[in-house]
């Protein structure tokens, strides 16, 4: 049974873990055994492949632990340590005593081992102040979530496994090392994306809002029976699309499935005189308008455009066909301003590395069945990046020799290895995650020679047509519906926003005054006055973060700056010297407040433009 002190500790600090361990503590198992060591301490052994493996020395576990920790050099250069394997914790206790200021976490692959730890080792005698997390089990999704939490506390992580686990749990160790590397790469990619688009998302959301108010929301205004239970095809721009034009033409002519083109695939389709049932787009870049340049030049007005509300605003200008929209998670403005007339919450589609992933979410919400992937290569084929009919000045279709990296290869649908890149890998991972969570949705991958996508069944499109698409399902004019947003609610929300903007101006000014006083007190070493001022500043800064205008307009544009501030704030909290702490607050928070003021000055004309648009819309509807 887990010791009483440990139950209290787990319940207070690691409740999810505690709930996972409770059913195991009453189970009798001969797989994990605790016994006395020769020198009087306890040791632990486990059964693995019909053999007994000791996790610690049979003779002197404590001496062994000291030697194990002594092998690791320059530990202070790391932000934190992740121990893989807890056993009876001798090595972890040795580490915590030797490095009292170093943060650490514990991952134990075997839940029975961790139950035995808490049954025999009283954590009251442990230095627990620097434990960040303790987790167990083999669920890879849960492990990745825990790794993401660790990386939020510091990117430079030292992994120390129990020596026995390097063999017993070699696969788990490999997964963790790969997951750490991939998550760091993913975070770098996210930071790069934030840096590139954090202002752009907000500008797009503002300039696109009139379109949002005038076009139907595909998830709310369109009759759901048009799509529910109907097959839908996501046509991507991968090179394998070139093999499927005649199959897609046949499907389109006979209305056998809804065809949604994503990204550049629209150009390949129209070059073969195939008009999809809808084209989907979401890229926030100004370059996204180039994707639809051909549609506009040919003055095609029969293809509905489904746009994400944070798409590059230039894309929507002069589009002559019908338009519908979906709200995206990068749009922090529209969800605050819109409400349906029946007060129903407005659904949002989560941002993703590719429009194909966004469209998959959309079709899942529309309850299409099955969802069929075409041209979703997520890899290079025959040195090609795109299908026939897609050419851009800024991106070459032909892949250069330098881009082919043997370290970036994935298994294709036939079990062969094909070249890919980091962007495609990220898209593949995201798509697989959404497919895994869409348990009731069948997903068919028809991409000949494309990357194998977990959770899908590979079937050639010709076979899908023959065996699955046997009757017309596409409803004509499904998109001819009206926007149902409540304009009165929108107008009222904007009035609240105007009040919030005035409050935000006052808060910024007040915080700047407070920081000046904190700087003065720190220079004169008035510790007591400064601590009081720091307390007041903290409350006022929290008011700023809760301010509605800040949350909607400023916060999305200072994401990177706020991440940096959060990291510095952790250092500031640990600073014992009051004078130095005051100087750090004045510097770091002062820089952030200046960024907020600069972005307010930048966004104010756009905000005024938004107010004018809503006033005109309200006036036209005589509100």
User: Could you name the CATH class of the largest domain?
Assistant: Alpha Beta
Strands, total number: 18
Instruction: Identify low-pLDDT runs.
Output: none
What fraction, in percent, of the residue positions are helical? 40-55%
Q: What is the name of the CATH architecture of the largest domain?
A: Alpha-Beta Complex
- What is the count of DSSP helices, taking H or I runs of 4+ residues? 20
Main sheet specs: 9 strands, parallel
Number of domains: 3
Strand content: 5-15%
CATH overall fold name of the largest domain: sialyltransferase cstii, chain A
Brief digest:
With 623 residues, this protein is of the alpha/beta class.
Q: Could you explain the architecture of this structure?
A:
The chain has 623 residues and is of the alpha/beta class. It has three domains: 4-168, Rossmann fold (3-Layer(aba) Sandwich), CATH 3.40.50; 199-467, Alpha-Beta Complex (sialyltransferase cstii, chain A); 487-620. Helices cover 48% and strands 13% of the residues. The chain is built from 20 helices and 18 strands. The chain has helices at residues 4-13, 15-25, 61-70, 90-98, 111-120, 140-152, 165-168, 170-214, 245-254, 265-271, 293-297, 334-337, 355-365, 422-437, 461-467, 487-524, 527-546, 548-554, 559-574, 578-620; strands at residues 32-36, 42-48, 51-54, 80-84, 103-108, 131-136, 157-161, 232-235, 258-262, 278-281, 305-308, 323-328, 348-349, 371-374, 409-411, 417-419, 443-445, 457-458. The protein has a nine-stranded parallel beta sheet. A four-stranded parallel beta sheet has the order 6-5-4-7. Strand 15 and strand 16 (417-419) form a beta hairpin. The protein is globular. The model has no long low-confidence stretch (mean pLDDT 87).
């Amino acid at each position: 049974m887990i010791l009483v002190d440990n139950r209290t500790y787990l319940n207070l600090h690691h409740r999810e873990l505690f709930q996972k361990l409770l059913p195991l503590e009453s189970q009798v198992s001969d797989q994990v055994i605790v016994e006395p060591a020769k020198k009087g301490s306890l040791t632990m052994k486990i059964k693995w492949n019909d053999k007994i493996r000791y996790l610690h020395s049979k003779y002197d576990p404590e001496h062994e632990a000291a030697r194990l920790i002594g092998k690791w050099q320059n530990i202070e250069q790391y932000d934190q340590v992740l121990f893989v394997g807890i056993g009876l914790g001798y090595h972890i206790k040795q580490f915590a005593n030797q490095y009292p200021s170093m943060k650490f976490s514990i991952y134990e692959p075997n839940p029975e081992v961790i139950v035995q730890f808490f049954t025999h080792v009283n954590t009251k005698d442990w230095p627990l102040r620097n434990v960040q997390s303790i987790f167990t089990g083999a669920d890879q999704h849960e492990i990745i979530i825990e790794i993401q939490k660790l990386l939020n506390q510091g990117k430079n992580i030292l992994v120390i496994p129990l020596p026995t686990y390097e063999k017993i749990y070699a696969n788990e160790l490999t997964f963790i090392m790969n997951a750490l590397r991939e998550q760091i790469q993913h975070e770098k990619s996210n930071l790069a994306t934030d840096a590139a688009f954090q202002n752009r998302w907000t500008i797009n959301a503002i300039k696109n809002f009139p379109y949002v108010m005038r076009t139907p929301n595909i998830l709310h205004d369109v009759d759901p029976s048009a799509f529910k239970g109907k097959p839908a095809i996501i046509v991507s721009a991968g090179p394998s699309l070139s093999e499927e034009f005649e199959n897609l033409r046949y499907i389109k002519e006979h209305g056998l499935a809804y065809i949604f083109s994503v990204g550049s695939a629209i150009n390949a389709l129209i070059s073969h005189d195939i008009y999809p049932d809808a084209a989907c787009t979401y890229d926030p870049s100004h370059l996204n308008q180039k994707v639809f340049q051909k549609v506009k030049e040919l003055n095609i007005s029969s293809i509905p455009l489904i746009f994400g509300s944070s798409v590059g605003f230039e894309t929507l200008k002069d589009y002559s066909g019908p338009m519908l929209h979906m709200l995206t998670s990068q749009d922090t403005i529209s969800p605050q301003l819109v409400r349906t007339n029946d007060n129903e919450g407005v659904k949002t589609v989560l941002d993703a590395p590719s429009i194909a992933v966004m469209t998959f979410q959309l079709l899942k919400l529309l309850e299409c069945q099955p969802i069929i992937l075409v041209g979703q290569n997520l890899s290079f084929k025959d040195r090609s990046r795109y299908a026939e009919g897609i050419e851009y000045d800024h991106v070459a279709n032909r892949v250069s020799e330098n881009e082919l990296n043997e370290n970036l290869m994935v298994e294709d649908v036939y079990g062969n290895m094909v070249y890919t890149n980091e962007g495609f890998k990220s898209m593949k991972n995201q798509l697989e995650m959404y497919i895994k969570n869409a348990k009731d949705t069948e997903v068919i991958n028809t991409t000949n020679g494309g990357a194998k996508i977990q959770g899908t069944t590979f079937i050639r499109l010709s076979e899908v047509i023959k065996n699955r698409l046997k009757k017309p399902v596409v409803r004509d004019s499904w998109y001819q519906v009206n926007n149902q947003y409540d304009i009165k609610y929108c107008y009222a929300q904007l009035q609240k926003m105007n009040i919030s903007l005035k409050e935000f101006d006052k808060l910024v000014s007040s915080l700047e005054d407070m920081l000046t006083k904190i700087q003065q007190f720190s220079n004169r070493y008035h510790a007591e006055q400064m601590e009081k001022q720091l307390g007041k500043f903290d409350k006022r800064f929290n008011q700023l973060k809760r301010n509605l205008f800040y949350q909607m307009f400023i916060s999305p544009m200072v994401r990177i700056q706020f991440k940096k501030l959060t990291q510095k704030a952790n250092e500031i909290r640990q600073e014992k010297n009051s004078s130095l702490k005051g100087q750090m607050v004045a510097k770091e928070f002062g820089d952030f407040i200046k960024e907020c003021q600069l972005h307010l000055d930048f966004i104010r004309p756009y905000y005024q433009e938004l107010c004018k648009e809503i006033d005109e819309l309200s006036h036209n509807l005589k509100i």
